[in-house]
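Two proteins follow. First one:
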Amino acid sequence: MGRLILRRGGTGGLLVLASTLLLFLAGEMMPGDFASKLLGASATPETVEALRLSRGLDASPAARYLAWLGGLLHGDLGLSLTNGREIGALIASRLGNTLLLAGLAAAVAVPLALALGTLAAVFRDSWIDRAVLVLTMVTVATPEFFFAYVAIAVLAVELNWLPSISIPRPGMSVWEVLQVLVLPVLTLVVTSTAHVARMTRASIVAAMEQDYVGTAMLKGLPRGRIVLRHILPNVAAPVSAVVVMTLADIVVGLIIVETIFAYPGMGQLMVDSVAKRDITVVQACGLIFAATYIFLNMAADMLAIAFNPRLRSAR
């Protein structure tokens, strides 16, 4: 098990390293020039070149990549091209908001998905089962941006129940903060619960056909006890892996959701930096999202191995 963890950790490290190269190349291929964008059309060529020199953009791409990579190894994310501030401080000012949004979405999405999947399996072939299957099929096919705009149109514009812009401000009460977070959290929940619900249902249905479940039913045990005490522990492996993958989906969806609702998180910072051609900030934010996604995929893999000893054997 220890060797497997080290092997997966090494693979994850190589993937993060590959992500740094891809992000750097993507930043180099961004259209437009940072200095011209920042100074405007009235800037002289001399002024533009002076700004490029001051930001170190005169060096070759290879030299800048190696300098960025060396800084990352020492925990230095670099400086923003736009204002010269440390990127670590910029991200730190937004990280708490992003973690709050992701945490609330996960706290609602995971229990809801498990409950829907369990209900659909226990009441198999009933109207509850069919409703869950149809609902999850629709949400799987619905992208975040589409549901977000529909939610804004209905709940914010037509019914005027919730604010369309999710910007927590100093001095707000807990209830007011939760109000402004309802729409982005709802968007993430709706678009991320389907896979967990469907996997939970499929795993429980398969387990209910096993002999030990039939034996428990013949003994007269209540259905709820059979599900909680005998079935759920045996389906923990596939469900846990899908739950972790759902968390990874939430992390990816944050970029879109934060942009739509103008939420001051890391996703919004990344999109704003793209508009400003602030390549260093885009690269740093993208690397954090990529590393988080890779780590969660590794965690899902390790959970599957921990629950299934057969996966530990060499192939």
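Second one, unrelated to the first:
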Amino acid sequence: MRLPTARGPASALLVEALSGIPDGLPDDADHWWPEADGTADGTDPIRDEDLHLFLHVCYELHYRGFDGVDERWEWDPSLLAVRAAAERRFEAALHRTVGPLPVVEPVAVPEALTSLVAADDGPSLAAALHREADLARFREFVTQRSVYHLREADPHTWGIPRLGGPAKAALVEIQMDEYGRGQLPRMHAELFRDTMDWLGLDTGYGAYVDSVPAVTLATNNLISLFGLHRRWRGALLGHLAAFEMTSSLPNRRYGDTLRRLGGTPEATRFYDEHVEADAVHEQIAAYDLCGSFALDEPARAGDVLFGAACCLALDRLVAEHTLGSWAAGRSSLRLPLAAGH
């Protein structure tokens, strides 16, 4: 994957630096983030293009990296110091967005997750697509989701070595399904590639990073933030639980929408697979995963709810951005798509 195009001064400095050998970066936060909230114009950091491309590039060094980028950058101390400053801005924005959450006893975490999901009143992107999407809008939706789905499960897998006991077993059980139980054609990322291929989209890993807006990158950066920091292991599990608990019905609608638009069984299989799998996963995630973890590490019970709340909040922002863009007669993407299938 090539380095993406910079979206501001910080990401420009980073992209330029990564083109060379690790030689130390300025570690003064003001050099990279001159404003207190990490933006130059007062924009909410969750919607800041420069900040989230910067974080996306930093995090990608821990996944598959970039063509021509020295792999020693992954653990370069000066880059990690600058990344930490960017993460502080992101984390502060997440806390402001989510607000205070109820304090619950560890034993009540599964029920608290269920209540949190039930109380979410954000707009339903799946319902809107089901009602009125044409092929162009569905292609746009799939493009938005491709940044995550082409590496589906990978960010949550960071949690496996951080756990033990029943919680670890539950996470492994979920992830085994995500990875097709070791069968390449059944891996969810591969099923999504089939969907993209039918829609005439580029199936290359990270092909549309330049196309998606900051809020989409933020949803991906959120999981990487939680997955790459052991201190956020509880939030990572809460994120996965909310992700699974809000998946089955939307994926049924996505599959039905694509069938209405002429999608083949191969094209819709990704969504059909999630209808069944995630109905099971949501129970495993809430009780066996998060419930067991909270009992084992009661001091982290609040982190579980924070991770779930962040998942719901950022998904809501993506839906609002996408539907708002369409209502205004414009694309939700930064770059237009070429004509497809």
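SUMMARY FIELD: The chain has a mean pLDDT of 93. DSSP finds 15 helices and no strands in the chain.
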